[in-house]
Design a protein that fits this description.
heterodimer; A: about 325 residues; alpha/beta; 2 domains; B: about 525 residues; D-amino Acid Aminotransferase, Chain A, domain 1; OB fold (Dihydrolipoamide Acetyltransferase, E2P); seven-stranded mixed beta sheet; seven-stranded antiparallel beta sheet; 20 strands
Amino acid sequence: MDFINHQLFIKDINVHIDPILPKKTAIITHGHADHARFGHDHVIATRQTIDIMKIRYGDKCAKKFTPLRYGQKYSIKNFDFTLYPAGHILGSAQVLIEKNNHRLVITGDYKVGKDETCKNFKLVKCDTLITEATFGLPIFQHPDPKDEIQKLIQSVKINKNNCHIVGAYALGKAQRIMNLLRQQKYNETIFIHGSLEKLCQYYSKEKINIGKFEKVSSKDKSFYEGKIIIAPPSALKDRWSRRFPNPIICMASGWMTVKQRAKQQGIELPLVISDHSDWNELLDTIKKSKAKNILITHGQEDALVYYCKKQNLVSKPLSIQGRSDEEIE
Amino acid sequence: MKKFSSLLHNLILTPSRNTKIKLLQDYFKILDINRAYALAILSNQLSFQFIKASKLRELVYEQVDQHLFDYSYDYVGDLAETISLIWPTKKEGKSQNLSTLIENIKKIKKSEINTEFSKVLSKLSNNERWTLIKICTGGLRIGVSERLVKTALADLYNKSVNEIEEIWHGLEFPYENLFQWLKNETSKPKIDFKKLFHPMMLANPIDEERDFKRLDANEFQAEYKWDGIRVQLMVSSKSVSLYSRTGDNISSAFPEIIETTKGDAVIDGELLVGRNFKPSGFNDLQQRLNRKKASKDLQKKFPVFIRAYDILFYKGKDLRKLSLVERRKYLEKFQKENTTNQIDLSTIINFLTWDELTKYKNNFHDDLNEGVMIKLKNSEYLPGRKKGYWYKWKKNPKLVDAILMYAQRGHGKRSSYYSDFTFGVWKESELVPIGKAYSGYTDKELLVLDKFIRNNTINKFGPVREVKKEIILEVAFDDVFPSTRHKSGVAMRFPRIHRIRWDKPVNEVLTISEFKKEFKLS
């Protein structure tokens, strides 16, 4: 494991995983902006991640792309790379790196729970596990997303004169909310903020059931009464949201577990729906991976490091620049 | 319990006052005994003797690893919420209603509290657990004041909220007479006003820019604002009693007042420590606070008196509808009957213009007043913090520049931010902390500080982060005293962050001996 440094850089072959700055060769775990950036020479990722990067940054966001299927091996000198599903968003992957019989897995962001919008997480046994810890505290125990989405559906039924604006990240979370609504037989048109349009179209094209959606337009205020609108969290406080009738501000995020956080952000209807593993899933993954060496990246790493040490696992935090504790999802 | 806990959940999350009122009203429409419990809880009149924050911590440590709990608590910043989330999920029991649950908890014996109360917690859902712990630890902090609860009740039954305020302190659980009167089934509850604590009239801070343009100086008078504790003194031929601002009976702690006062009146004033009506500092007053009794020795060393500034009743007559000027005449009468060493009158400052008042406000000769109170001459005595009648105008605070040393995450509404700051001054080549502040900054400044702390941590001690010594804070404070408890030898009163001094280099900050000299501590 000495071959990779705390910035997820493999010096021997000049390869970075999820680098923040433009690099020669970058393996990208998924399309979120804190992992996938513009300007690398060579991007290695799943086909969907590459598609998503092109949608967000343009076709020329890297000089060269190498799409990999899940499970397909790719070698650079004596390093073998394989991508496995991470269950985080469409196209998200874990990276298995093999060198001289040492197996190292970088999980990227991942969740273990079921999700119809992407391939489900696959556990990969390894010697060294580099895991995320966004929700690395025992207070985070994500409820069943079906129950959470029902809260939204019930609130829409009761508050007929209000519209519900759901804050959700434009890539992944927004489409998952739409899919969950469809699973719960909500068949109305879902209205979306303009910044979600291309990504929603892409999800549809990839045959993910997000149902009928339409971009919000300057219609009469009353038109949106009783409707569900999905927007990126940044739009909730924006002038944009003032055009709607009596909006009830909702937010779909694992952070919504904590009432005080919801209150701080002015969220009236918190929906605890996360695309990251909760505490128990993190522990379970660490255990089942059989790794003896656990490195913990962005998030609430202190508690998880403490827990691993108690289990006699070698464990230390890995601070990666550009990923602060609480902004990412 | 499900219904009540979802009421609290919704109340804490809704920013709109009208929605809060509507939520409360929907709940109070229920007709059974549960609404009485809810009212007691929302007005902080219900508490459990054995179950306090320390006990809850003890219980949660039996359930989960202490370190994991501490990490979580540091993150969440709210004890009730942390416990409710981290408590191991068992199978939820049959939902109980609020009244049954509370009565069952009251029946738990002290010796069995650990096992029995843990059992109760295990049977509840997250949200119910949160509610119950909030009830136990008191002070719900859900953004609902007692006043708002009364307003919701009054509006629901077309009564005025002042009518409820008037009788409020004479009501008792389960408030049968209140609810019957609200529904017009009986007349207004008869309350013995002589025994009753009357909610006090409170002042709003003055907004110098806005208010002085708006308000006519001729309609106001002023008094010095004293840094003591606000009290209500109730005197009758049968008994004398003393109440704190919150309506707690504190008579037994101040026997010299109780024993010497005569007459028949209800007085509003400030309790101060001092001899011959010359107040000594807040430090001295603190020697008399939070005690159930005062020994003869203590009474001698730290004698107390009341500086009276208002009167609510005199010889059975309700004066509250009279003007402040009229009431003052009765107050002077009362004082003449009590020429003891225990009661004097608050001096009235007359002034013609607001400018003229400034010099009284900034009266630095006397450190013991903290500014002036500005009162409308013809104001009635109105309970609560009504706008437009009484204002407080604090003198300019003392200021010192100090270096940010440590930071900790805040609690409540600031729980995700590093918002508790420890700052210090030089002692030779090292820094020594002189105080801690968690307010005063703007939201923008907080974001800047929070970011600085996250990016410039050089050491972690549990939840406390030590940071690079680069940021200078201008700290405002009301006063500073010598202290043997702190390494620096000083203790500040009400320190808060005034601004960030980007312009000043750290080597220009005072040394501790310069600091002491400047504020006359050595």
